[in-house]
Specification:
The protein is of the alpha/beta class. It contains five helices and eight strands. Strands 2-1-8-7-6-5-4-3 form an eight-stranded mixed sheet. The model has no long low-confidence stretch (mean pLDDT about 85).
Length: about 160
Amino acid sequence: MQVIRDGHLVADHWQHLDDDSPAGAGPCTVSCRRWLAERGALADHGSAIGIRLTGDDDIAAIAADLAGFALVVIEFPAMADGRGFSLARLLRDRYGYRGELRARGLFIRDQVFFLSRVGVNAFECGVGSDPEELLAALGEFSVKYQASADEAQPIYRKHSRSA
């Protein structure tokens, strides 16, 4: 399977484990609930570990562990569920997470650019989504007026007016 990471289509080697699946060899992600219940055993599993978050998860409960995650996946259970945008912004701005931040689930092409604005740098395409089309969405806007996770200064602070 391919994912979009940092503006490129790349092969994905991550496994997303169910809460009752054993952690095998290779990089894997687990739910926040599982991480909180099995933190010690999962940290010693021997491969890269990632965490999957939903809008119901409390980021503060895992804040101290964030630096140890090679990947944080934000699950989008429905296109209209905007809590993933808030999670991404909190992870980048409040908690300082600098690793791969991936959107997964039911997001649409129109949301890809705006997800990148709040700090998402990877996209796992859902069934029926065209990765090339989602990749193109990242470059549709050439001007960013507001400050955000991807741009610290608003446009009016970058350009002085000539009088």
